[in-house]
Hints:
The complex is a heterodimer.
Chain A: H1 2-16, H2 32-56, H3 78-118, E1 127-129, E2 140-145, H4 149-154, E3 157-162, E4 182-183
Chain B: E1 7-8, E2 10-11, H1 13-18, E3 23-30, H2 38-50, H3 53-59, H4 63-74, H5 85-96, H6 104-116, E4 120-124, E5 133-136, E6 155-158, E7 163-166, E8 183-190, H7 196-210
Parallel strand pairs in B: 2-5
Antiparallel strand pairs in B: 1-3, 3-8, 4-8, 5-6, 6-7
Helix pairs in contact in B: 2-6, 6-7
Amino acid sequence: MPDVLEHHSLSVAQQQGPPSPLAPLREGIDERFARRTLREQIARLEGELSALFISTWPRKGFDLSVCAPAIAPRLLNLGELELLRDDLARRIDEGRRELSDRTWVEAQHRCRIEEMLLEPERHKWVRVSNQDIGEPGCKHWHVRPRWGILGMFLNWWRVRISSGCPLAEGRGRWPRPGALHFESYPSLV
Amino acid sequence: MADPELQRGWIDTELELEFPELALWLTRIDARSRASPRLVRTRLRELAGRINGNHVVHMRQDAVPWAYRVFWRQVGIDPDTDRTPVERLAVERLRAGGIPSRNLLDDAVTIATLETAVPVLALDADLVGAQIGLRLTGAGECFGGSGRPLSEQVIVVADEDRTLALLSGEVAEQRGVTRKTSRMVLGAVQVKGVPLISVEEALWTVADTLSGPG
């Protein structure tokens, strides 16, 4: 008997063909509550996506775009809402994973800066920028020999910290503190 | 000046069942648009000074802008591509480095939208019907009655006879405010999560700015 039923349902499904994602799943059934539930899920996911966007800022290169089913605001059907919900969930998942990977690398870079400051001679010519640690601006830490070629021969290394780009307004009459370069002087070896 | 009276526009039954919290608030005022007086231009300048990149990035987590983002998403629009009015104005302010004055009505709408995050639309009261509300478009319907064709199930602001505006703020040709307009209908769409006081403030700000001295 189950075989017969199974065969019958299969043949009906074959006759109807594959369901279109945009068509109602079943005729004559009120899908309003399902749509409302999906809209609530979309609202929650949109909140999570917004929070994720703010967490990623000012880092660049994150793709948090979600497909838009319409070009003018309109009532979406169940299939479209489901696709939108799934796309949002996928974007959030991918974004979180990417952010997690990125923050792990940034933490490694921060550790490296500390090591560079403690033992610059072990990190010759290494350069870490603000972008590498997920911060805005173009400040960078660069291990360079002190006194040029002499420092290279004598193994005197130091970390040079650039405070970033000059301000757009220019330096004015007096140099701005933010535009000055200062150096750290770790122990000379 | 006393605050103008607000009226609730009608909502199509199907739309109301789908979005029970959706509302359209309207007010009619006697006012003309003209060049903005100095007071309004100063207000725009001060408003522009308060908006920076950090503010715009975090705007999407504020309650009212977030509510409109969610609604945009629920009706199929990507708010990062077709931005909500408040985000569009804020991003435009960052790009332009300020908020240029256009005319009194546009400036009033800009001030109200940036202050409250509620989008306001303005129509010529003599060119629209008495009963304005929100409904879904039917098959073969055109924007403004004779404009470009609209898809089915689009949410529009409409009167008894024709569609008047889209929720994105686009107003149908020959229904918007012109130099000849002496009476206006101001409208604001309230979505789930937006308190009525924000909508009232938005409409009153526009009305107040339009009827201010100058």
